[in-house]
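tool=predict chain=A
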Amino acid sequence: MELKLRGKKAFITGGSKGIGLAVARGLAEEGVDVAIGARNGDTVEKEADRIRGDYGVAACGIMMDMTKPGDILSARDLCHPSLSVTRVRHFS
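tool=predict ok
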């Protein structure tokens, strides 16, 4: 299915397994560059490598814990260079 998302960027939390990983892979299949965050650093980086290899999109894996505000801000800053993000939208 073509959702016209090619070239967009997405940050998915809980992205190393289950629904989060399925969402990340589905978006990558549509041409979306993805950053995936999860608490297990080894697993999240391995899944980002797989996404890059399988879909040819930019993907980065970031070890983070959503219950820690500092991790959220650090994750945002880490994904900027690898996804060539020029603007971050904040939703509140």
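Strands lie at 9-13, 33-38, 59-63. Residues 9-79 form a domain with the Rossmann fold fold (CATH 3.40.50.720).
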